[in-house]
């Protein structure tokens, strides 16, 4: 390795290490803030190196577990139902669209694509979901509006089915007398696993992180998801014990106003941090897959 | 005979149509019905009559929207922030992608790639808390630890307009740059290694290799992303502009975009008309921009066109 090259390696590695720190340190700050003693926080502010640690915020969460557990439960439920539903809908729509012989294919493709080009905006959607479908303050408010099925995922899956599953396989199956349903079930789903993982992962991420549906359609505190709860807490820390007071009877712990926000935030990102190392290659390949044909 | 054939064909494809039905129905409800609902922008809406039976009001909602300075401010903010985001994320994204692919140590390379992707996965609500940990007037790290270090007075961050363009651009870059970087990395990975070997033999410097080989070969990826973003230039990340500034009224002037305006107007008493009016402008201009930008791309290189 020449001197110039070695110098170049050193320079880019130093730059990239700094970049990596910039990316990771804010999350470390979030965590450190959540385990800092409340009084230290009030006098010294949030910091990477607190003078005194305390798990009070987490103890508070555990004592008032009803609020957090319920919010977590709602998020998990919405994520599971939404992601599963999305995978079913996406694959069932994308598979027929990927077939050359489907009559009316052009129309259906346009029907899907047009939803990407134009939308009615928030106001008509809001009126429809609340007045016609009455999803306000139900679990469906987290599942139905916008997140369940997007044109992008349909096009992604359609392209994958078309280009990555050899046509000969379909032909052979058809000659053997397999029905379309059977081909979908026995071949498209197993062979399309990479795209299903990608679509599922990104849909799941969107469900887990979504707070807008909670903002628009939920105003009962016992129906808040974890993100919606965090959102509510920005302005009103009392949202936390809006429904906890009666449940725990003799409330003893006072809300640690300053650290609790960070503790709940950390609890909300924890699942992502835990699964990230295992799934990051799927996220990366998913993004790259989307770039090939948007 | 022919008729029988057609019926048979139809019966043959029926299962496929049935499979498609749930998805098509969802898109009809979630996407197409609200499209018809945009007439609400031309109505004097009241809840009892619903969208379609409320009385018409012509362009009253639009006149109201444009009678205030709001319209100009939200359009200016939406456009300028998007332009800044596009340019900055692209320059930094391409640079990082070149650096990361050049790293010879595979373990480190993976680490860098993962770390820039991490913020992309975190919800904007949590991001707003992290920003709050830095900027909070009483407890923020900047006011408590960093500014005193330089002998500066604490700043009321959430009340001062000045710093917000920078704060929002940095936050957006932090959260979003990983996405573009990965796409550029994929683009670089697709470049034929023979180019570099030949350049090496000819004694080309690293800089020459970047400007003469890497960047030109990346143009398709750059154009694709650019088109996607230009098509969305009238849309803004609601969370970034609503959550991160904590909906602070004192800085609306530099944080209010079309999306935050639509939401706030919708939630304000009697604001539904101007909310819908702002929404329809966004949809229509957005639609025109997608069509135009796609048309332009199709002229330049048809394989990069979205449709």
Give a quick precis of the structure.
Chain A is mainly α and 294 residues long. Chain A has helices at 3-34, 38-44, 56-63, 65-97, 105-117, 122-132, 140-143, 151-164, 167-175, 180-191, 193-209, 212-217, 226-235, 245-248, 257-292.
What does this structure look like?
The complex is a heterodimer of chains A (294) and B (307). Helix content of chain A is 73%, strand content 0%. Chain A is an all-alpha fold and 294 residues long. In chain A, helix 4 runs antiparallel to helix 11, helix 4 packs across helix 13 (226-235) and helix 5 crosses helix 8 (151-164). The longest helix of chain A has 36 residues, at 257-292. The radius of gyration of chain A is 24 Å and the shape is globular. Residues 243-250 of chain A have low confidence and may be disordered. In chain B, helix 3 (60-67) crosses helix 14 (272-300), helix 4 runs antiparallel to helix 10 (206-231) and helix 10 crosses helix 14 (272-300). With 307 residues, chain B is mostly helical. Chain B has 14 helices and no strands. The mean pLDDT of chain B is 87. At the A-B interface, helix 1, helix 2, helix 4, helix 5 and helix 6 of A face helix 1, helix 4, helix 5, helix 6 and helix 7 of B.
Overall 3D shape of chain B: flat
How does the helix and strand content of chain A classify structurally? mainly alpha
How many E-type strands of chain A?
0
**How far apart are the termini of chain B?**
39 Å
**Strand tally of chain B:** 0
How large, in whole angstroms, is the Cα Rg of chain A?
24 Å
What's the story with the biggest beta sheet of chain A? Answer: none
What's the overall geometry of chain A? globular
Uncertain residue ranges of chain A: 243-250
């Amino acid at each position: 390795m020449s001197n110039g090259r070695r110098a170049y390696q050193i320079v880019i590695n130093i730059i990239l290490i700094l970049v990596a720190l910039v990316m990771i340190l804010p999350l470390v700050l979030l965590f450190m803030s959540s385990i800092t003693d409340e009084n230290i926080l009030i006098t010294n502010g949030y910091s990477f190196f607190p003078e005194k640690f305390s798990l009070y915020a987490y103890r508070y969460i555990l004592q008032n577990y009803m609020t957090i557990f319920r919010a977590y439960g709602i998020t998990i439920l919405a994520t599971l139902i939404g992601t599963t539903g999305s995978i079913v809908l996406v694959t069932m729509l994308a598979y027929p669209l990927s077939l050359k012989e489907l009559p009316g294919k052009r129309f259906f493709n346009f029907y899907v694509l047009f939803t990407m080009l134009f939308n009615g905006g928030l106001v008509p959607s809001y009126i429809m979901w609340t007045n016609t479908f009455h999803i306000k303050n139900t679990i469906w408010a987290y599942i139905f509006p916008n997140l369940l099925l997007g044109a992008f995922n349909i096009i992604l899956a359609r392209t994958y089915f078309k280009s990555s599953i050899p046509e000969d396989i379909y032909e052979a199956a058809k000659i053997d007398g397999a029905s379309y349903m059977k081909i979908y079930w026995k071949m498209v789903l197993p062979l399309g696993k990479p795209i299903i993982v990608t679509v599922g992962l990104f849909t799941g991420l969107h469900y887990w992180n979504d707070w807008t549906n909670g903002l628009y359609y939920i105003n009962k505190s016992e129906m808040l998801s974890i993100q919606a709860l965090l959102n509510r807490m920005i302005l009103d820390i009392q949202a936390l014990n809006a429904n906890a007071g009666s449940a725990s009877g003799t409330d003893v712990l006072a809300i640690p106003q300053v650290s609790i926000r960070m503790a709940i935030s950390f609890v909300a990102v924890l699942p992502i941090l835990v699964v990230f190392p295992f799934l990051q290659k799927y996220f990366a390949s998913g993004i790259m897959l989307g770039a090939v044909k948007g | 005979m022919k008729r029988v054939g057609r019926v048979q064909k139809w019966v043959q494809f029926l299962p496929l149509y049935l499979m498609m039905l749930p998805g098509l129905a969802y898109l009809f409800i979630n996407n197409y019905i609200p499209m018809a609902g945009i007439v609400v922008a031309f109505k004097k809406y009241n809840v009892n009559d619903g969208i379609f039976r409320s009385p018409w009001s012509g362009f009253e909602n639009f006149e109201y929207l444009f009678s205030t300075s709001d319209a100009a401010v939200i359009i200016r903010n939406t456009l300028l922030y998007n332009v800044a985001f596009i340019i900055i994320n692209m320059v930094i994204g391409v640079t990082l992608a070149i650096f990361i692919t050049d790293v010879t140590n595979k373990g480190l390379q993976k680490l860098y790639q993962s770390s820039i992707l991490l913020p992309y996965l975190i919800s904007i609500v949590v991001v707003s808390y992290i920003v709050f940990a830095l900027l909070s007037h009483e407890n923020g790290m900047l006011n408590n630890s960093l500014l005193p270090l330089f002998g500066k007075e604490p700043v009321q961050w959430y009340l001062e307009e000045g710093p917000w363009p920078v704060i929002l651009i940095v936050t957006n870059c932090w959260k979003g740059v990983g996405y573009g970087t990965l796409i550029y990395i994929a683009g670089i990975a697709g470049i034929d290694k023979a180019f570099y070997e030949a350049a090496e033999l000819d004694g080309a410097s690293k800089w020459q290799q970047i400007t003469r080989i890497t960047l030109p070969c990346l143009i398709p990826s750059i154009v694709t992303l650019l088109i996607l973003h230009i098509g969305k230039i009238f849309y803004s990340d609601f969370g970034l502009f609503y959550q991160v500034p904590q909906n602070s009224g004192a800085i609306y002037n530099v944080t209010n975009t079309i999306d935050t305006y639509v939401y706030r107007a919708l939630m304000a008493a009697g604001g539904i008309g101007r909310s819908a009016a702002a929404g329809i402008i966004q949809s229509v201009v957005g639609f025109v921009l997608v069509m135009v930008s796609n048309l332009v791309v199709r002229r330049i290189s048809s394989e990069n066109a979205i449709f």
